[in-house]
């Protein structure tokens, strides 16, 4: 039989075939609509249930009780299950590129699964939470219907209360740890920026902040479970522990975070924080009997002697802490007993705490000026330079401000205390808060969790820390923007690296807050690196090995021109250092350690054909691909 083409089919058969195709497409479209309808309905139910759980928890926290915690867990579980069902009904959304829907679908999947793990962890911990409610200052309904009364926990008694509940919650923490760890991994995969178009910037930022709290908690559980004895010793159980708190002004950047401007002494005994008094750092100058000659790095500040306020010249915090302790321990006054450790606080942590505590109204000696997170950095300098107040009053300002801030923080309670804990956790991660302990076990614990400001002594691959030291005596770093460009190439079978540090500022030179920037800049690189050249900068070159931290150090002094008129272009400067990396160093990653005192800085990495830009707000280990020219 001769072959017949489709065009020769009878007209009625072609019409029938076309109808079946149309009906199939309509059925598929209807099925998609039905799936979407069911998915949206379940998604809306889940959203409402999660909102109800959130409302119950907020209501309990505001009333210092946990009456509705079980109901909130049930709503949370049901809401997350409905959201999971909604996602399962609409799997095709993962392929939709419009308005980032596919990325949002994937991120929502991570968030829902993480939420389910968190819910399982909280269910596991619920019995222990009920038992510990009174110790945490939370009222709880007992089995006979009466209410267990408790006094709300404040920031001052929080540590003591947590230590009292530790034996009760430890088994539950141990059992819930795998759930917290799984949630932490999933949260780390969420790209929160994908939600901004749907949720808005403010709500997305709040969700991202909340997720960091869970991440911090997950990271703290192993510390609590396996280091309880060390923690107890550090918190003054049973022997009191004294700590020197040092406030560093990050506007005048120094290697450990800023120029030391004020100090406090505090005692911890049985987990309870004693009275805190803060004073200007210059008040110690006449009490200190140790007065050595200034090290070479300080010759730029025209001082013949080394002082405590300039002792934090070493980026490795334990080295600076030992230098500071040498000065402090030379004080013979019995009001300054030996300390068991030091707590380094810089400007950015103070700003974050002010966002929680609210504005501080200073005493009448300072004309009742109101200090906020937005104006604190500027007001400190206005008081110091343009207030017309007596010298002693001006120098005492930061100490008085810190005293008031500590008092307000210690008085926090409820959800505000949780926010304070979150800020402290972020501060430890971002190095706006760092710890040094005389006790070797406590110091090892702090270093293990990157709270000790230590420079990594062993790097399996490439390494870099850029260290600025403001020598101008003014607060240029509040307005200065820093970028680091790292270029690695292979030349004659040897890795050659060029690190270019660039600065620019839009601030005007006013002679007191901002002046032409003067800085001593060092880079810490793998031990055994060989300097090839340093371009720009002025003064002698520095090229030496620091065997305390097993690094080669390169550096030079830099001067940036001043800008005196808005019509002038932005003032820029740079320092470029080229060096050969050690032979046989595996280039599998680049470890970047962030300098304390800089909230974040931009790193541009080029490794052959690999080019990436990173915003570094904490220490990072960046994987490098195989080298391709």
TrEMBL record:
This is DUF4012 domain-containing protein. InterPro entries: DUF4012 (IPR025101). It holds the Pfam family DUF4012. It comes from Sulfobacillus benefaciens.
């Amino acid at each position: 039989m001769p072959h017949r083409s489709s065009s020769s089919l009878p007209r009625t058969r072609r019409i029938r075939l076309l109808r079946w195709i149309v009906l199939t497409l309509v059925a598929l479209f209807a099925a998609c609509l039905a799936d979407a309808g069911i998915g949206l309905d379940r998604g809306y139910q889940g959203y409402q249930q999660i909102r109800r759980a959130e409302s119950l928890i907020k209501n309990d926290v505001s009333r210092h009780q946990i009456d509705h915690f079980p109901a909130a867990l049930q709503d949370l579980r049901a809401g997350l299950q409905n959201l999971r069902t909604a996602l399962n009904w609409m799997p095709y959304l993962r392929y939709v590129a419009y308005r980032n829907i596919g990325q949002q679908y994937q991120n929502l999947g991570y968030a829902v699964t993480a939420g389910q793990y968190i819910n399982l962890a909280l269910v596991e911990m619920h019995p222990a939470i009920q038992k510990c409610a009174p110790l945490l200052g939370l009222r709880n309904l007992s089995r006979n219907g009466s209410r267990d009364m408790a006094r709300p926990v404040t920031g001052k008694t929080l540590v003591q209360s947590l230590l009292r509940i530790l034996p009760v919650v430890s088994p539950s923490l141990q059992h819930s740890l795998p759930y917290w760890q799984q949630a932490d991994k999933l949260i780390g995969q969420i790209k929160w920026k994908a939600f901004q178009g749907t949720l808005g910037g403010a709500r997305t930022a709040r969700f991202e902040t909340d997720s960091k709290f869970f991440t911090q908690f997950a990271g703290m559980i192993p510390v609590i479970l396996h280091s309880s004895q060390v923690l107890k010793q550090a918190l003054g159980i049973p022997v009191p522990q004294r700590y020197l708190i040092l406030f560093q002004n990050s506007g005048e950047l120094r290697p450990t975070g800023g120029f030391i401007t004020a100090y406090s002494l505090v005692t911890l005994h049985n987990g309870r924080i004693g009275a805190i008094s803060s004073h200007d750092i210059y008040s110690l100058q006449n009490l200190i009997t140790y007065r050595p000659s200034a090290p070479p790095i300080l010759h730029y500040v025209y001082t013949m002697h080394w002082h405590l306020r300039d002792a934090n010249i070493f980026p490795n915090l334990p080295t600076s802490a030992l230098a500071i302790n040498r000065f402090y321990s030379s004080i013979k006054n019995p009001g300054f007993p030996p300390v068991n450790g030091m707590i380094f606080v810089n400007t950015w942590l103070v700003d974050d705490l002010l966002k929680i505590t609210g504005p501080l109204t200073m005493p009448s000696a300072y004309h009742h000026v109101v200090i906020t997170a937005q104006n604190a950095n500027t007001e400190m300098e206005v008081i110091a330079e343009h207030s017309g107040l007596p010298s002693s009053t001006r120098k005492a300002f930061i100490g008085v401000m810190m005293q008031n801030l500590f008092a307000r923080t210690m008085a926090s309670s409820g959800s505000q205390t949780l926010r304070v804990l979150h800020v402290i956790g972020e501060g430890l991660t971002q190095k706006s808060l760092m710890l040094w302990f005389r006790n070797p076990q406590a110091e090892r614990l702090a270093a293990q969790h990157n709270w000790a400001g230590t420079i990594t002594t062993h790097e399996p691959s490439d390494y870099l820390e850029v260290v600025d030291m403001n020598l101008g005596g003014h607060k240029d770093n509040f307005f200065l923007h820093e970028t680091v460009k790292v270029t690695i190439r292979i030349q004659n079978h040897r890795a050659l690296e060029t690190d270019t540090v660039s600065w620019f500022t839009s601030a005007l030179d006013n002679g007191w807050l901002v002046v032409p920037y003067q800085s001593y800049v060092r880079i810490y690189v793998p031990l055994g690196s060989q300097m090839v050249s340093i371009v720009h900068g002025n003064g002698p070159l520095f090229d030496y090995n620091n065997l305390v931290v097993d690094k080669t150090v390169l550096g030079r002094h830099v001067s940036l021109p001043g800008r005196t008129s808005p019509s002038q272009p932005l003032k820029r400067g740079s320092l470029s250092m080229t060096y050969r990396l050690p032979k046989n160093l595996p280039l599998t990653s680049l470890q970047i350690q962030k300098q304390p005192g800089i909230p974040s800085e931009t790193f541009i990495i080029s490794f052959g054909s690999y080019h990436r830009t990173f915003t570094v707000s904490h220490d990072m280990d960046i994987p490098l691909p195989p080298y391709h020219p």
